[in-house]
Amino acid sequence: MNTPSNTVSQEFETNGSAPAVMAATQPIYWSLRREFWENRYLYIAPLSVAAVFLFGYLIAAIHSPGQLRALLALGHAHNHDEVSGPFDISAALMMGTAILMSVFYCADALHGERRDRSILFWKSLPVSDVTTVLVKASIPLLILPVLVSAITVVMQFLMLLLGSVVMLATGGSVATLWANVPILQMSLLMLYHVLTAHALWPAPVYCWLLLVSGWARRATLLWAALPIVAIGGLEKIAFNTSHFATLVGERFIGASAVVASTDAFPTDPMTRITPAAFLASPGLWVGLAIAAVFLAAAVKLRRYQGPI
Amino acid sequence: MTVIEARSVRKAFGTTIALDSFNLHLEEGRILGIIGPNGAGKSTALNAILGLTSYEGELKVLGRDPWMERDRLMRDVCFIADVAVLPRWMRVSHALDYVAGVHPRFDRTKAEAFLAKTSISKRAKVRELSKGMVTQLHLALVMAIDARLLVLDEPTLGLDILYRKQFYDSLLNDYFDRSRTIVVTTHQVEDIQHVLTDLMFVDRGHIVLDCSMDDLESSYVELIVHPENIAAARALQPIHERQALGRNTLLFDLKRHPIDRQQLSTLGEARTPAISDLFVAVMGSRSGQTQGATL
After folding, report:
1. Which domain CATH number covers B164?
2. For B181, how many CA atoms within 13 A lie in the half-sphere containing its CB?
3. Of the candidates B177, B204, B231, which is a domain's last residue?
4. Which of chain B's residues have a Cβ under 8 Å away from the Cβ of A37?
5. Is position A238 within any domain?
6. What is the pTM of this model?
7. Which residue of A has its CA nearest to B148?
């Protein structure tokens, strides 16, 4: 009996080196791939919005090609806003899409795998709960901001090309157009704005949604909103104040004042960003600390949760 | 080498006790079948072994605490929890990519060779496959992992007899060797009669029988009694009696009441009982006891 078990354990020892070969980043990479396989809307939705907007811009350019040229002819300072207007709207639309996707993604992230029982499959593989939850959190906090910014840059570049064609066809100045729309600067501003105002600042909101999606058996958005409504309502009735509601509201949409110092549109070249002030604001760090607590709770929860 | 060592493992959901004083010592190279009625605690026991549920008591799987070290343990342990857990949106090729990506012991060529023998297309999504094909896919993934312990919880539930036969044939011929260990639960006991090396019956959270298949052969005898010997056979204290096709079949536990096998064979036709018959006998006597107690 001894001999076979000895050879067996030797076999295991030679195989034992295999796990070391695999890089620690592999589970992270493949977990990300999994999210994009499972949630194809993560790239289909922003691409569709970009395509629709481009189509609209094309119609506008064909419909009234003279308008753009006339605007540019008026002079730089006073009509800059009107020239860059479609670019600002397109950026705003993409940001809105990113926020919507993030909310729906988070509300389903740890719920879907329990609902379709596939959590048993995921848990049968050597991927830790920490990796899974962190990868899911990275989608709204990092991946979507970068992805949406990249798609926006490409879309705006195509809009600029389209505008240039119109200029050439109607005898306008391509150079003036490009001078009015500094695309590189605008895209960097976009990335900065999305990462700060729509990812890091509202991080506790997204992490709260993730946590609830790992806990609720159904209607995750309802369960996520209910405590907020309840606390806000209680405060209003008891003290006739609405500090909590304001706090949550600011967390979601109120970061603009912290990340930049002007009222201009976030991607407007006139915007003066204030990253130092943003990084130094206690609100950011308190928010991130709360987000970390929510994530830790979500990791713990996933360990206990099985299929619904 | 010990693969599973459980001592007094207990799990309660609220006031319901799913598992109580569960003890298990499983050595490498065994195939253990855990049999029990619905809600007996089989799945709870397996979930504890796989680190899917918390528990009280002492449990080590391959020397690790499954609840604290699930992700590390899953490098050496594989499981098929149910036939329906592969994500329905996943493509077959994605499943291969993913497992190859995260599992250091996965051999992709092996899985593809296995899939080539089936009619599963790599482009297909799991939702497009039949239940049997999903099981084949899952088995292909699992068998290509060089794991030390494979846990199967009702792996063939809802499959027709052809798939079931194929499933266990593949498992025994292409996968199992003396360095691997398999734990399986199923209601289709007749499928695994000749697969198992060890057998365990669980009922209401308790182990009611735990023996090797060799023990089973030496401890239990089923006797199809000749009608004229029925009174003599009953006098030998069988643990169970049933009638089929007008003949009485008696089951004897030689450990509880030692009887000479020669003596039995003079009374009728003696043979090793099927697991299902033994199960009915053991469970029947248990429910009789509890009924007696409650009445």
Report:
1. 3.40.50.300
2. 21
3. B204
4. 89-91, 94
5. yes
6. 0.86
7. A12
> What residues of B are in contact with residue A123 (Cβ under 8 Å)?
50-52, 70, 74
Full pLDDT tens readout for chain A, 308 residues:
344 444 434 444 444 444 445 677 899 999 999 999 999 999 999 999 999 999 988 888 887 777 766 666 665 555 666 677 888 889 999 999 999 999 999 999 999 999 998 999 999 999 999 999 999 999 999 999 999 999 999 999 999 898 888 888 877 778 878 887 888 888 899 999 999 999 999 999 999 999 999 999 989 999 999 999 999 999 999 999 999 988 888 888 767 777 887 777 887 777 788 888 889 888 899 999 999 999 999 999 999 988 88
Residue-range definition of the domain harbouring residue B231: 215-294
Helices (H), chain B: 42-49, 70-73, 92-102, 108-116, 131-143, 161-170, 189-192, 213-219, 230-234, 261-267, 275-294
Choose the closest CB to A126 out of B88, B102, B146: B102
In a domain, B210, yes or no: no
Angstrom distance (rounded) from CA B135 to CA B84: 8
**Rounded CA gap, A229 and A224, in Å?**
9
A/B interface, count of CB pairs below 8 Å: 102
Using an 8 Å CB-CB cutoff, list chain A residues near B90.
Answer: 37-38
* Single residue among B204, B236, B263 that ends a domain in this structure: B204
Min Cα separation A212/chain B (Å): 20
Q: Which two tokens stand for residue A155?
A: 């879309």
Distance CA A129, CA A273 (A): 37
